[in-house]
Structure formats: C-alpha cells, structure tokens
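Anyone else keep sequences and structure tokens together like this?

Example one:
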Amino acid sequence: MFARAAVATPRNALLRRLIAQSSLALGVWAMSPAAWPAVAGDPAPECAASTFDNARTIRVADYKGKVVYLDFWASWCPPCRESFPFMNELQRELGEKGLQIMAVSVDKVAADAQRFLARYPPQFTVALDTTWTCASAYLLPGMPTSFVIDKRGLIRDVHIGFRDKDKVEIRRQILELLDERS
C-alpha cells in the first residue's frame, strides 16, 4: 500500500540525464529556424546538388540576379509528370528575360530519375539530391514542392503539389518578379 521510492542507481541517473538532455535538445531544435519549412519571405536556404553527370554543382545562389523557380521532384511523383512540360514552356518563354528553372530530384536511386528524364526531357537545369541535403534544407512539405525565388534570393512563394490550375498563378508570379528591379 505504500508507494515504493525509486532507487537511485547509476542507470537511473544516466536515464534521467539522457531524458533531460534530449528534451532540451528537442526544444532548442523546435525553436530554431531549421525546424520549420522554408516559407515566403525567407532567404532561400543554401544547399548544393550535383548535375546528373557530376560535371558541376549547382546552387540557388549561383543565379542571384535572376528569378529562380526551384522545383523538388521525384520519379514516383505523378504530378511531377505534369509539371515538367510546364517548366519547359516557362524556361523556353522566359529564360531570356531572366528566369532560371532548377529542378532537383530527390530520388534515392539515380537510375530512377534518369528513366523519368528520358520520358520527360527537361530544357532546364536538373540536379540530383539522393542524400536529401537540399530537400532537408527546405523541409519539403509535399511532393512536388516548388519555390519562386526573387532576384535577391528571397522566397516569394511556395507551391505544394502541382495542378493544371496552378499554371496561371505561377506564371503571373514569375512575370511580376521579372518586372521588378533588383
């Protein structure tokens, strides 16, 4: 009928210390900006991804002074099949006006992404992020996720998923940013 007092052992002390440290670390992590997805108004997070031939590394910062449409995609993503022809159209129409499309595959296996690209050939810059370095920096809320980034490197809009009805709004946002002074 009496509650048994906890016996202080080295194992219990270690367990209590581990729980306290984990709670503190989790609290600090949850309060840090890295714990939240990138949103409109944030600077575009820094990350680097390699082109499929490993010939070069690309970064959003490489395109400062241009409007960047950064798209995270995967071969298994049905809406991504719809977005690639649209991104080709945007790059073809607006590339000379200062638009740079960057599409980053998050496929774990490069061959899966390459099969997708053979079926939906891009006319824009494509990179591979098998380790999810860039995807983690942006904390993607869904697939695909696209970020409209202005000439100064600030995220101006985020699009989760891709639907045919999104095309008009995305194009409007990009045109508006292309018209802005840096």
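And example two:
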Amino acid sequence: MNAAELLLNGQSDSAALRMKQHPTPMTSLLEAYPEPSLLSKIQLERWKGLKIGYFDATGFVRGYVCLDHPCIGLISSGAAQASLRFAVNNARLNLAAGTAGLYAPHMEVHRFNWQCNEAKRVLVDLDSSTYRGLGLEDVFLGKDLQQNLAFNDATMNGLLFAMIDEIQQGCLHGELFAESLSHGLIRHVHLHHGSSRQSIAAFEGKSRFNAQQFSRLKEYVRANLSAKITMRKVADAVGVSQAFLFRGFRNTFGCSPYQYVLSERITAAKRVLAYSEVPLVEIALMTGFSSHSHFSTVFSRQTGLSPTEFALNCRA
C-alpha cells in the first residue's frame, strides 16, 4: 500500500470514527422505529395531520439516538420500564398507561433499553415541515418546548387517542378533522409544555373574525357543504392564514373548524329531513358525509335521534 492509500484509508477511518461518535440527528423517529406498527401504510396515507405512529411495544435495546425536532411518546396501554443513558447522567422510568414523554430537539441518548408488559405506544413527530404544512407560524416551531420524560396530560392524551381512532376507522371524518386535531394538539402542547406559554397565550387571544370575515366564512361553508372542505380552502375564502383561521374559530365560536362545519352540515340535514322526503343516501351526499352509515352515526351522536326518528318527529 502506497502513501496516498495509507493517507486515504487513515482519513476514511477517522471520518468513520467521527460519524460513529457523532451520528447525524434522525429526521424521523417514526421511520426508523423498531417495534411492529399497528397502523397499515394505507391507513397512514389517508391521514392528513401530524406524523403519527402506533406501535405494539415489544421492547428493544438501541444505541445512540439524536433527534432534530421534538417528539411526543405515550404509553397508551399496558406498562413499560425504560433505562436511558445520557452523556452525563442516566434515567430509569416506570411508565403506566397514560404516561407520556416530551423529547426536546437535539436530545442525545447514548443507549435505550425498553422493557414492556402488554404495552402499546403512540409517537408523534413535531417537525417544522409539518407545522408549516398546517399553516402554523414560527412561534410554534418547537424550540421552546421543555423536555419532560414522564408526565400525565389527559387533554393531550385524548387528542392522541382521537387521532389513532380516526386513522383506524379509515379517516371517515376527512381532512378538516385531521387538521383540527393537529392544530389543537400543537397549541395545547406549546401552551402547557413550552417556556414561552405566556407570550403564546397572549398571541392566541388576539384573533377574532370581524363582520366581513364572518360573512365570507358563513357564505363559503354553506355553499360547499357537499364538497371537501379544508382549512386552506376556508382560509383562502375568508382572506386569512390557516393559523389565524383556527384561532378565529376558537376565539369567536369556541370550537374548532371541523366542529363548526359539522354543525352547519347537521343543521342543513335537519332542514332537508323536516321539509322533504329525500332518501338518506342523497342527504348524506348533499351535506358532505362520506356515506349513509357515517351520516346516520354522526347525526345520532349529535342530536340523540336517528335521521329517520328526527324526520318522523318533525311530521308528527
């Protein structure tokens, strides 16, 4: 071997050693997760919200991990024990069902050791590309989130369970529902687990629809009940950003965009049921529901009566 080869080999070995000691931060923990997924590829492709995974927590041992964005982990059922080795200290965790962890960006763990007992795990990536795709401002980019390896947050868990349930059902409620859940989760996490929660709360409270915006909103939604309504389309019609739109719904109506549109769809369906004999299949399509059965289920949940019972009561 000549001197040039020796030098080249030496540089390669040195570079390899540096890469081994300081690997590139992982862009997505979900894509490299070693446990079996409980969601199919087709189910995940239909989902239009935050990047999320649901896993059968079988336990594993893993070496160095460094994330380039925040991540939420939740033991949704069962129990788990974890041993984490950091650069300067170690952590041992005993996690019951409902216990979550918030991992800050650039968290470095030199070794994971998970042991699980009939557990299932939810993971959510809070990466900036998804935030911007949802129309969120830079104030929500995750830099202020405070790491907490074990905590309980019933509201956050409820939003995560709703996401998983929606994906498992084939995303029947549509893109607007996924967007509303995602916006709600991001805002909750930043308001309750971020160092800038006071400034974010003040920022959030300023947004309300004026009379002109409300008029555009109402006109657009009522004219498009049978169509696919998304936050981007509504925001464009109203003339505001997607982020302002979500805040505007919360501060003006006390609900999410999905809840508002759903209320309008139910109201429209009531009018048709009360004054006509249009078949339920046609009413479902006219008011934007994915199927007759989906319409009947949601209508019953919202009103306490099936569509047929409501129609009969109106004509009695």
